Amino acid sequence: MNIHEYQAKQLLKKFGVRVPEGRLVEEGADLESRAQKAAEELSQERKNKVWVVKAQIHAGGRGKAGGVKVCKDVNSVKAAAKEIIGKTLVTPQTGASGKKVHKVWIEEGSDIAKELYLGIVIDRALAQVVMMASTEGGMEIEEVAAHHPEKIIKVAIDPTTGYQAFHGRKLAMALGLTAEQTKEAVGFFGGIYRCFMDSDCSLVEINPLILTNQGQLVALDAKFNFDDNALFRHSDIVAMRDLLEENPQDVEASKYELAYIALEGTIGCLVNGAGLAMATMDIIKLHGGEPANFLDVGGGATKEKVAHAFKIILKDPHVKAILVNIFGGIMKCDVIAEGIIAAAKELQLQVPLVVRLEGTHVEKGKEILAKSGLKIIPADGLTDAAKKVVAASNQK
Fold first, then answer.
1. What is the DSSP letter of 139?
2. Residue 300: its pLDDT value, please?
3. Residues 229-258, buried b or exposed e (16+ Cβ, 10 A)?
4. Which of the two ends of the chain, N or C, has the fewest CB atoms closer than 10 A to its terminal CB?
5. What is the per-residue pLDDT for 253?
6. d(CA 262, CA 100)
7. By the 8 A CB rule, do 96 and 90 touch?
8. Alpha helices, DSSP H only, in the chain?
9. What are phi and psi of 90, to 5 degrees?
10. CA–CA distance from 353 to each of 90, 195, 295, 350, 368 (Å)?
11. CA atoms lying within 13 Å on the CB side of residue 300
């Protein structure tokens, strides 16, 4: 799960991390007057004479796409809010279709002396949390890693002992901070670490992390990803979910506890088990096809769950064929067969359907499919299934 920049800053603030003050303005009536009010309130409270209007979408590269405007008077703030809200931003992270802006964050301008980078991830090879810092703030960290890896400093933190002051000092030294700035940095980095751990994050990026001309560290931007499996512990974070920023199929899949990820191919995949789903996509590509999705119905899928999975797959207009690949352990093949038939009849399935069943009650499942009267292409083995579904998807 992702959240917006303004929401990430609200979380950081709870852990004592300094962020710029701002106001949220959403689409709707009286947009310009609400933007003006937000700017005037900030000016009164913070005595600032510069404002930044920032599009709130779940993607980076907003500035280059025209989604960030620096304004030096209230009228400019109003004009920027009007221009950005409703605009579709196309960035390297949105794809060609882009993302429509529904809200902007209007915040006080910052007196920037230096732009830095700070990130936290989980290194699964080390089984530790890793904090990364770089003097190349404001740039795409992937570009820095590719061309100047020596400019990224990594500090591994053992979760049994947690963040210690020496971790912060090492990062501060790598960033070239003074002794006085380092004192603040130790606590600042510690607050970000606590936010990461206590919120069950999988990623936190502060880019840029700025050093002001007054010598203060400020999180000027923030990107958060969370471990979905831990969200049951964080109702406040779940409440931040913005469904407008998510793929409609992803949203529907989550309602039925289906693991679904939309891809760009033409072959819909319905599989039980994440590992088998990955193998299914691999073998489809091996035989010249392109998967349209990753979809894991889980080990204990019901007839109804399978029917919903079909509906989600068929909402993708690019799907030209579907491969159902089920290995029945806890799940019984006859139950899956009934779900396939029910879904195919309800949806009046028009695309070719290839089914490979193995495992518990497999013969009964195959018998149910054979007697259904539907045009189902049976497959024996994964290679046979992949070849048949690729051939079916290529038919005009």
1. S
2. 64
3. eeeeebeebeebbbeebeeebbebbbebeb
4. C
5. 76
6. 19
7. yes
8. 5-14, 31-46, 74-84, 141-147, 165-174, 179-198, 235-238, 248-255, 274-286, 303-314, 333-347, 362-370, 382-393
9. -110, 115
10. 35, 47, 16, 9, 15
11. 1
Q: Compute the CA torsion angle 193, 223, 93, 68 (nearest 10 deg).
A: -140
Which of 22, 216, 198 has its CA nearest to residue 116?
Answer: 216
Q: For residue 291, say if its preceding peptide bond is cis, omega within 30 degrees of 0.
A: no
Q: Are 44 and 23 in contact (CB under 8 A)?
A: no
Pairing of strands 217-219, 201-212: antiparallel
pLDDT of residue 259: 85
Q: What is the 8-class DSSP label of residue 358?
A: E
Q: Which two tokens stand for residue 396?
A: 């005009």
Identify the CA nearest to 362 among candidates 387, 383, 336: 336
Active site residues: 117, 205
Q: Which CA distances in Å does 153 have to 61, 122, 170, 231?
A: 23, 15, 9, 30
CA–CA separation, 241 and 12 (whole Å): 17
Q: How far is CA 223 from each of CA 122, 206, 216, rounded to the nearest angstrom? A: 15, 7, 20
Please name the residue that has the structure tokens 């990623």.
Answer: 203
Strand order in the sheet with 293-296: 259-262, 293-296, 267-271, 321-328, 353-359, 376-378
Query: What are the 10-residue block averages of pLDDT along the chain, 396 residues in total?
Result: 95 96 95 94 89 94 91 95 94 85 96 95 94 88 83 93 96 95 96 97 95 95 93 94 81 78 92 90 96 84 78 89 85 83 84 90 89 88 94 85
| 283 vs 268: CA distance, rounded Å | 13
